[in-house]
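Budget justification aside, the reviewers requested a transparent look at the raw inputs and outputs of the sequence design task funded under Objective 1. We therefore reproduce one unedited record. The lines immediately below are the structure tokens for a 329-residue chain.
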């Protein structure tokens, strides 16, 4: 039994597909299948149930995969500890970022971090919150930038910034000259949202509970930029976070309109394992994020008037709890 074989079974368990797992491990599918079959023979048990459409982990396989993740994390810590003993700001830092933050934060974060830690390149995984949680707990990534709430055991979360939401409408929509919009008004509009699994979708539905109605006209997609383009085409209206509305992402066909107070928002945070042995790297990353956020905060948003902006950290206001559905994670 080798660490490589353990990586293979963890990849198959997470991907539920031998082909995708092989791509992730940078080997051919036949080589992956042979290696796992060899391990199963060595252990004398079946780890996976093979089917044409999906791979299922057996009950005993679940326990072995869980242990394999712990072994791989501890093995990775040996390298991390050795590296930390030399210089915590030297060596690859593996950072996970949710899809709705990555495109808008990373272009500013990379130069800010490079200035502070030029010998600490980022290996970035952009993914959904649930997958980043798995990657963080298994040691595949060192830290993650996610939206709160996020409270896995053994993980520290540090608040980074508050980001208010805005309604976006087509250029010639009747709301394009409005000074503000109440969340309840969205119920009569064709709304474009992200697909299930994106925490930003959950946050929009929490802020605009009328959109949870089964008869609400909704189109779904997987990208905020696709949402922006569909709004530009005149398909409907949507909600975007502030960072997606800075001048660099301007489209003359899309008009941002502020929400009426209290303004819906999300709280973005940095999460990392409590046992992570490079605290100086975490501190430097946090400092770089603060620096680029401070710079971007000075830029004017693309909208008419001041509208309502971010509430102070930890003071974000929402509709009453009774009006909000439970948030799936």
């Amino acid at each position: 039994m080798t660490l490589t074989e353990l990586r293979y079974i963890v990849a198959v368990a997470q991907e539920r597909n031998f082909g995708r797992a092989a791509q992730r491990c940078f080997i051919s599918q036949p080589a992956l299948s042979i290696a796992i079959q060899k391990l199963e023979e060595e252990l004398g048990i079946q780890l996976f149930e093979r089917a044409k459409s999906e791979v299922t982990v057996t009950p005993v396989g679940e326990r072995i995969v869980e242990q394999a993740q712990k072994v791989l994390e501890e093995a990775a810590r040996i390298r991390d500890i050795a590296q930390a003993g030399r210089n915590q700001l030297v060596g690859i830092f593996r950072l996970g970022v949710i899809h709705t933050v990555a495109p808008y934060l990373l272009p500013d974060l990379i130069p800010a971090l490079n200035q502070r830690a030029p010998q600490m390149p980022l290996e970035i995984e952009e993914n959904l919150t649930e997958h980043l949680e798995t990657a963080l707990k298994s040691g595949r990534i060192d830290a993650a930038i996610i939206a709160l709430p996020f409270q896995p055991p053994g993980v520290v979360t540090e608040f980074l910034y508050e980001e208010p939401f805005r309604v976006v409408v087509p250029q010639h929509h009747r709301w394009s000259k409005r000074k503000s919009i109440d969340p309840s008004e969205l119920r009569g509009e064709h709304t474009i949202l992200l697909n299930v699994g994106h925490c930003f979708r959950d946050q929009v539905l929490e802020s605009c509970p009328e959109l949870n109605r089964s008869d609400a006209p909704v189109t779904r997609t997987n990208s905020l930029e696709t949402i922006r383009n569909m709004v530009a085409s005149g398909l409907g209206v949507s909600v975007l976070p502030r960072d997606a509305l800075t001048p660099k992402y301007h489209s003359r066909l899309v008009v941002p309109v502020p929400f009426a107070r209290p303004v819906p928002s999300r709280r973005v945070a940095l999460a990392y394992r409590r046992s992570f042995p490079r605290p100086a790297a975490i501190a430097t990353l946090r400092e770089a994020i603060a620096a680029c956020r401070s710079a971007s905060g000075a830029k004017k948003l693309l909208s008419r008037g001041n509208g309502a902006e971010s509430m102070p950290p930890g003071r974000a206001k929402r509709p009453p709890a009774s009006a909000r559905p439970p948030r799936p994670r």
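Residues 31 and 128 are 29 Å apart (CA to CA). The radius of gyration is 22 Å. Computational costs for records of this kind are itemized in the attached budget.
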